[in-house]
Amino acid sequence: MVHKKFRAPVVVYIAGPTGFTLIESVAQASDFLFDHWPGNDSLAWTDAMKRCAEDGAGDDASVAFLAALKSAGISYDRTVEIY
Question: Which three-class secondary structure state does DSSP give residue 12?
Fold first, then answer.
């Protein structure tokens, strides 16, 4: 898996003490999909995992990751600015 950065980071809102996690790279997206996913069996999840594992992943992985979040009803925000 490549350690390619996303063009824009994604803040994903999760249950727990922190309430959110910041996803900035393909590797972080893959880890999130594997560790924090309800079910690990939807088509969107499978596609996102596949895209994250592909060589040269980047924009395709980001799009697939966001689609998987949306299909699972997981809230996220791409407008947060990181300083």
Answer: strand
Residues 45/66, Cβ–Cβ less than 8 Å: no
Q: What is the DSSP letter of 57?
A: -
How far apart CA 7 and CA 18 sit, in angstroms, is 24
CA-based radius of gyration for the chain = 12
State how far Cα 49 lies from the chain centre: 9
pLDDT tens-digit readout, 19-38: 899 999 999 999 999 988 87
What element of type H or E holds 30? helix 26-35
pTM: 0.85
Q: Are 67 and 13 in contact (CB under 8 A)?
A: no
Task: Check if the beta carbon of residue 5 is closer than 8 Å to that of residue 24.
Answer: yes
Q: What are phi and psi of 40, to 5 degrees?
A: 50, 35
